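pasting for ref
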Amino acid sequence: MRSSGNIDDLHALIDVMSNPVVVKTRSHRMVLANRAACTFFGRSREALLGQIPAQFRTEQAQEHEAEAAVFASGKVDEREEQVTDAGGTTRHIATRKQLVNLSGTQYLVVIMSDLTAHREAEAQMRNLATHDQLTGLPNATLMHDNIAQSFPHRSGSGALLVIDLDHFGLVNDNFGFYVGNEVLIQFGRRLTDIVRNDGTVARLGGDAFAILLTTIGMGLTSEEICRRVLAAASQIFHLSDARAVIGASIGVVVADHHPVEPTEMMRRAGVALQKAKDEGRGQWQLYSDELDRQSKHRHSTETDLRRALSKGGELEIHYQPLTAVTSGNVVAFEALVRWNHPERGMVMPDEFIAVAEASGLIVALGELVLARACQDAMLWTRPLRLSINVSPVQFVRGDLVGAIQTALSESGLDPHRLEIEITEGVLINNPTSALDQLSRIQSLGVHIVLDDFGSGFSSLAYLRYFPFDKVKIDKTFIADMIDNGESAAIVESILLLAKNLKITVVAEGVENVDQLDLLRSLGCDQAQGYLISRPMPIANFEKTVFGADI
């Protein structure tokens, strides 16, 4: 390559290549460099040729060692390197180094490919795959990996917290998703400030976050972190167009002495979180095996109940009579659902109603009871009234007015024979809407009953705003009124108030003759309880419903 003409010809050949190309001697000196190489190194060809470009390499010794290996072995060397270009920017460069023999002299041909854009795109894709784009926090995928790395090696010294914002949907409903996003961003920052170097904060999706604590015993305890998280969630969120106040619920699982898979850790934390929600939100719950057993039983109950609703045959309606206190005659029946489970036998409402409410199945269950009970009542010879309880969840989520209209229409039942029982819980969250819906039901000719009267804080106030047809005194007062003068005075006051308002009164939970006698002396209208009868299939009351006195 000593001839200037030959070198010029060779440069002309390699100048057409878009990748940087250099040819070097065994002593690492450049003898050829194309235009792309000159541009990359930021030097003229004259300045490059004959030089050892150590000033352009970040690891000169390794570079020379790799080149020497190629000269020694004759094998092609391909690798990726980080090289600083003329502008001082670190580039990801793929190099291919191969020997060429010319006139008995060996030369090293180095072809460089700039992978910087590709590697940056890969890094961005990794970030997208492992980080939440709204908050910038690690996402569920990265948290899963972090749990896998942390818990098997930190038995008894780590904890996982899963956090849900309470009533976050109301923020989106009232202010829009943009404001909701601001809340999520601010809350993520608050969590990061709390945890600092003691763990990792992640957004799992929606309004769910997680904290992985890996320094339990060396830093803050999980209990202290939970208290700080609850406090942070309850602080006012100052947003661009609004202010919001929410809260949070937390499920906590502490690493035990056996390695646990990340998916199982998340599941356990979720079990504890659900318990926190069920207990009223705004608190934290620690996972335990007993809690897990309850959760699995609850899930099994929900699955079986969903199946029972689809088939219908397992669900039965039992009826409990209401009698006139003065005469003892049956004046109405309250419809109560029972579940004849194929394996568990007869399941009582207190074992499955809460599950039905939490899962939303209560709407379908309530409609089934309403429809069947109305059909049953049409078979009675005596036009006794039918009383049906309505869950607050069904009242809010379902189309109760439509369901009542359908049941009445399909059964042919006289609306005046139907009584709908509600509790104070129906009225608490949105009394205006609830009272409007009750008025629509009452306009059909259906009677409205306020159940568990006296047990809530606002029972008396609701009597001012809605003309209830009947109230049922809570059974706790009836149970205590013989031995407790205060309970007896409350019962007497309710009866006097109801008489002035022309509202019928039912005493619930009547279990002995002394209670019934006192109620009779106080002027109570109706009674219901085990003294009169337990709930039973309607066939057990054949004489009552088909003509003869009980």
